Amino acid sequence: MKSLLGLATSLAFVILTCHAVAMDLDQAAQDIIDRIAQSGLEPEINGLIEFEAARAGYGPGHDPAIEISAPGDWAMIGYDGAGGAYYLLEDQRILAVGSEGAAGVVAKDFGAFIATLTSLPSWREAVRHMGPDDVETARAGWLAYAAQWGLLAQYDEGWPYQTDGFSYPTPRAAGQAIRAHFGVEGPADPFAALHEAIHGLNDDVSVAAEGYEYEPLSR
Predict the structure, then answer these.
(1) Is beta strand 102-107 parallel, antiparallel or unpaired with respect to 215-216?
(2) CA dist., res. 38 & res. 180, Å (int)
(3) Tens-digit pLDDT string for the chain (219 aa)
(4) How distant, in Å, are the alpha carbons of 13, 101, 142, 144, 147 from that of 137?
(5) What SS3 string covers the chain?
(6) How far apart are CA 129 and CA 144, in angstroms?
(7) Which of 26-30's residues contact partners 24+ apart within 8 Å by CB, and which partners?
(8) pTM here?
């Protein structure tokens, strides 16, 4: 009888612990959403990162169409306007799920997410060149592409599209303002920082939808 009572007590403790963890994760996700929504920098954040904070009815929580395999739970924190989304994992990593069948962890936590992605011009284009394990090989491919399309110059010269609602004239100035607001510093080498995240933080994470497994972001 005592053993059954002990088992029941243990199971109840596990259930309560899991519930508490889920609540903590949802609160952490909501905190991120609130910080972005209250920053006054949403146009710049979306312009640099393609990140819009999740709204009521659209996160935080689970998208039932997305199957995420990762340690612990996850919660949506934002989306990119093209069908992609961002998730906070239970261990604080930030997972980016694209709209074209690619996904991957891009930062160890929200601070690193902001610090790195606001420091790297056109990070979504950069990440496509991060397949090689050697960072300098990856960088060479990225720099060639960036030079061909003028991406690095654009970072200092101005936004490539209409900027209604923007408070800062260039992506670089906006990135500096965003990092200052969130109290983070950009890495000395943002390309290497993102490369390290792509290659070092994804071994235990995978994403699928309706049986289709997503490819790495760096495909």
Answers:
(1) parallel
(2) 14
(3) 545 555 444 444 333 334 445 669 999 999 999 999 999 999 999 999 999 999 876 655 556 788 999 999 999 999 998 889 999 999 999 999 998 899 999 999 999 999 999 999 999 999 999 999 999 999 999 999 999 999 999 999 989 887 778 999 999 999 999 999 999 999 999 999 999 999 999 999 999 998 899 999 887
(4) 50, 25, 9, 11, 16
(5) CHHHHHHHHHHHHHHHHHHHHHHHHHHHHHHHHHHHHCCCCHHHHHHHHCCEECECCECCCCCCCCEEECCCCEEEEEECCCCCEEEEECCCCEEEECCCCEEEEEECCHHHHHHHHCCCCCHHHHHCCCCCCCHHHHHHHHHHHHHHHCHHHHHHHCCCCCCCCCCCCCHHHHHHHHHHHHCCCCCCCHHHHHHHHHHHCCCCCEEEECCEECEECCC
(6) 10
(7) 26/60, 26/61, 26/75, 28/75, 28/88, 28/92, 29/54, 29/59, 29/60, 29/75, 29/76, 29/77, 29/88, 30/60
(8) 0.87
